Structures are given as C-alpha cells and as structure tokens.
Amino acid sequence: MAVALEEKSTSPLSFLSDNVLAAAINDTYSSLSEKRKLLGLENPGTVDNIAREVQKDVLLSNFMFSGLRCDLQKIFSVAPLFRLQHGFAMGSQALPPWQLMALYGNSNLFLQAAYSSDKSLTAWGNLRWSPKFVTKTQTAIDPRQAQAMVQIDNEYTGDDFSASVKAISPSILEGGLTGIVIGSYLQSLTPRLAIGLEGVWQRAALNSKPETAMSYCARYRSTDWIASAQYLAQGSLGASYWKRLTDKVEAGVDCQLQFAPGMGGAGGMFGNIRREGTTTVGVKYSFATSVYRAQIDSAGKCGVVLEKRVAPPVTLTFAAEIDQWKNTHKLGLAVSLEGAPEELQEIAERADQSALPPPI
C-alpha cells in the first residue's frame, strides 16, 4: 500500500509569526480588544475635528464671505455622483472672479477639482481602501507661488480610536527629507472621555535644523453637550464647549489663548508672561428651509450668516460682519442655482411640501 504524504508548505517569513513572542503579543492584544469591547467604547473622531461641532458647524469661520457671489450647479447623476459648478464673485478679496469646479464620487472614491480665473488649480482626492482605512490627498498649484503644495493624509478609523499620518509638501530631491509630517492618535478611555496627542516634524531645507512639537488634546461627550481642549507645545491653549439647547438650536463657545514668556525680568523663567487670547460665542438656528448663524467675540467682531432656500433649486445666503474696534464692516450676498434630474427635483419638492405646516 502506497501512502501519500503531504508536505506542509511554509513561507520564508513564517518564523516572524510562528514563535513564542509573537504568540504572546497576539494573545495580549486579543485579550485587550475583548476587554475594550465590553466597555462599550465608540470611535471619538479625529484630532483635526476635536472641536468640529463648534468651529466648523456653529461658528462662521467656514461660512463668512464678502461681496457678491453666484453659484450655478448642475447634477448629472447621483450614483455615482457627478456635478459641475460655475462660481462667479465680485468685490471679494478671497474668492476669484470665476471658478469652475467638478466633483465625482462613489462609495470608495471621491475626486474634486477647481480651476480659477487666476490660473490656479486645486484638486482633492479620497480613496477608501477598506471601511476603516482611507487616503486623502490635496494638491494646489498657484502660478504666484514658487512651488506647488501637496498634502497626503492616511487615516485609520478603529472601533474606539483614530490614527492618522499626514505629510505636507514632502520631498527627497535634495538628498534628504524636507517638508512637514504630522502624526496624531485619539483614543476613547470611557464611553464619554477620549484623549489624544499630535506630533509635528518639519524641516524647511537640508541646511536648516528639523523642528518638532507635541500637542495634547481631550474630548468629553455628554448626551447634549461636548467639551474639548487642546494644548500646543508653543504655548497656546484652545478650549471649546458645544451645547444643544433645543432640537433646532445649537450654541458654542470657543476660546484660544497664547502664552508668550517675556525676555528676562525679575520673575525668572516664568515671569512677565504675555497672555493673548480671543473668546468667541456663537449660536445656530436650523429651520425647515433656512439656517441662521450668529457670533460675537472678545475682539469686538460680530457677524451673522443666513441661508434661505427660496425654492428647491434656489438658495440665498446673506453674510455680514462688523468690527467695532476697527470701525470696519463686511457684507456678502450669494445666490445658488442648482439643476438636477427630474426625479431628484420631484423628491426635493415632496420634501419641502411635507415640511410645511398643515393649513388651518
């Protein structure tokens, strides 16, 4: 009787995993993962968005503009999403007179590019390798600048943590690494509390010395309010507080402080510290067809932004800002016209009609 013996094929690198040390590390990691799951921890977000609810949603940093603006949008398809937009601006120092923007996206890929009348080009791209790992890129080419800006961000979103590595304008053409590298990690300790850190390494050129900095952050989330704080090694402290007052009203407070030690003095190393800071208070009202935002800060600025959907394809935006100390002001008015396929317009019209109160 002939007996066939099968020889188990092994990989040349199998010794890295088939050993006592690797098995112990694997068992320890599996045990910690099981204990973390029993705590009911959730993903805390990213370090970049540690105060997203206040800085990017309630306050006017991303919504304030000046002058006249008109946006013409056309949606050609939804799955995948494909949209073109023409933007015209007048009387604004931040916006170009004309801009063409194209957007394409599906569940795993997102591409967006904008070309302006000043011959500048900006492109964004997101590629989702897996449900938890995504690569984000941004490229900006401006003829007025000596070199282009390239940013590559690799972000991993775990069940109870987030980690990312970001490189800004990296280069090895000079014989060494130059640019800016940023690494961040945010971990949930309890279902409400998360802490994290962010490290920055930068080197402008090979003849200059590399610089490093470390910052620390914390975020606490309750049922209807969120508090966050971030400390930078350069001596700046940021704190924010977000509160949901009602189903349609949100409020937020953001405080930015900078501590600069004085030169010499009888107080020693920590004497004669100069403190500078700004505190901003904002509120957001969300209605059926409009959104109203207002804020005021300790520097004497107060501003408002009102977005109103007049009809399913037409949106009006009004922005105003007054600086009490400098005696200056800004005014902005924008009109957005959106064209979509007939089936999307019917869905939008039915949604607007359902939001109206019943007749008396």
TrEMBL record:
* The organism's place on the tree of life at top rank: Eukaryota
UniProt record, GO biological process: protein import into mitochondrial matrix
Q: Entry's InterPro entries?
A: Porin_dom_sf, Porin_Euk/Tom40, Tom40
The record, for Pfam families, names: Porin_3
Please tell me one Gene Ontology term that the record gives under cellular component.
mitochondrial outer membrane
First-listed, main subcellular location of the protein, grouped into a coarse class: mitochondrion
> CDD domains annotated for this entry?
Porin3_Tom40
Annotated compartments: Mitochondrion outer membrane
Q: Which UniProt keywords apply?
A: Membrane, Mitochondrion, Mitochondrion outer membrane, Protein transport, Transmembrane, Transmembrane beta strand, Transport
Q: Which GO terms describe its molecular function?
A: protein transmembrane transporter activity
Q: How does it sit in the membrane?
A: Multi-pass membrane protein
Please give the family membership noted in the entry: Belongs to the Tom40 family.
The protein in question is named Mitochondrial import receptor subunit TOM40
Natural source organism = Exophiala bonariae
